[in-house]
Amino acid sequence: MQYSMSKGILSAIFALALFSILGSMTLHHVYGDGFTMENLPPATVGNKKIQVFIKLTPPVITSNTNQDKTMFLRIFDANTNETVQKYSLWIEITKGNQLLMRDLFSTNTGTITLKITPTDTIGKWTIQADQDPQLSSWMSIGGGPINVLAPILKEGGLYHIHLELSTIDFLNNLFTPDTAPKFDSYLSVGDISNHTITYNNNNYNSEIISYYDKINNDFSFDPSKLQISYSMPFDWNTTRFQDRPIFVHEEIHIPKSFKEFTSTPTYVASVNGDPITGRRLIVDPYSLGDTVIAHILLNKIDIQNIAKNMPPGTNTMDFQLAPAVANVKTSSSVLTDFGGWGINLGWSPIQITPNTQNNLKLTFFDAFTEQQVTGDVNYDLKILDSDGNTALSETGLKAKGGIDTQPINLPSNGIYRIEINIKSIVNNGIPDTSRIGIGRGDLVIPSTVTSDTICTPNTTCVPEFGPIATLVLAIAIISIVAVSAKTGLRFMPKY
What we know:
Blueprint: E1 2-3, H1 5-17, E2 29-31, E3 37-39, E4 43-45, E5 48-57, E6 69-77, E7 82-83, E8 87-95, E9 98-107, E10 111-118, E11 125-128, E12 130-131, E13 138-139, E14 146-150, E15 157-168, E16 170-174, E17 182-189, E18 191-199, E19 202-210, E20 220-222, E21 227-233, E22 248-255, H2 259-262, E23 267-271, E24 274-276, E25 281-288, E26 291-298, H3 300-307, E27 316-323, E28 333-335, E29 341-348, E30 351-352, E31 358-366, E32 376-384, E33 390-399, E34 403-408, E35 414-427, E36 430-432, E37 437-445, E38 447-448, E39 453-455, E40 461-463, H4 468-472
Parallel strand pairs: 2-17, 10-14
Antiparallel strand pairs: 1-11, 3-5, 4-5, 5-6, 6-7, 6-10, 8-9, 8-15, 11-14, 12-13, 15-16, 15-17, 18-19, 19-22, 20-21, 21-27, 22-26, 23-24, 23-27, 25-26, 28-29, 29-31, 30-38, 31-34, 32-33, 32-35, 35-36, 35-37, 39-40
């Protein structure tokens, strides 16, 4: 059966014909920006704190992803973590100014799973499910996923998912439009674009994966500076994400055969003219044998700081990347490529020399809220030499309460790559594997470690991932991961 907006209008008329017995419930809007999963802040409904968890599968989706795509939703009471078993929910999905789907769904189990088959026709969608006779809402057939054929998750970019509770607990507990709790999530599908770089009469095939929004058609290469430039749409009005997380992740893939660009371990990057350094720029020459991957990683505080100097009317985020004179420093903090984690690296002693034990203290943080993880982190630690050979490998490690210390003793001078592979977070005995990711950093022997610093929006400069009390002044939120964006939805429990 195929439906367009007319069904939504008829359902709205039907809803208005019923009088809500929940009129005293509090209207509450909650938002997220740029991920593939989110655990949205709660809305007050009577004596409950109603919270929505939304998750896209697979956890990393790009425009080239061919496997099945699903959207999972769970509504629960944040006070007790108990799932709300019965509710009806309007789900509206848009991209830009295009309506991709709007329909009413119900559940008696507390969860809704949509199995999405992307189609090409904007404004039309097909739902394959049972219908509740009272609300004409869609329900799962035999407990399985609801099949949705719609132009969703096919192209890269930000998808706006607007949710409105229609009923809760009982079908006659109907919200009026002005009292219905509303939730907005912006989830991302990574956009893959390919570009040819010409240098000294040679052509090199490069690739950009933007996990926030689809990039503009302005990719360029300046051979005199060996500089890549491009932009993507971006609204620099920070009030729009004041109470929600935001995360920008860009990957720039350059073939190693372009030796003039890739023969250095150090790069310079900028966003709208502001230098991107430290854990915000991570270069990975190992994961793909014939390719160097530059990761640009910007969290909420990074974006707020850049926005302070943004001229009015700016509507793009402009990226530049170029090789630099080798000047690698030992990392004091890293961000994971996915999952939204930060790891503070505390070196003791701060003078690192060969054939000497150095204790590496790892403190794990939520990269979106910058608050320390209090659950147990299961992770692997690997150190690679400059040729990509494994110099140290420890698996099955656990950071209890988000903190662990590992002895490091390497036999020779050199530049090494640190990789921290987060496999799960255990909170209250329940492991969460939805936010896996790898944090990458550098280790230089010999070196003296210094900490990166950042300035929070209230202009107080603190060590990166510094005292939680100070950071809380600069942040509101979330949940994961995601944004939506970019990023991508997995459950982001509170650690």
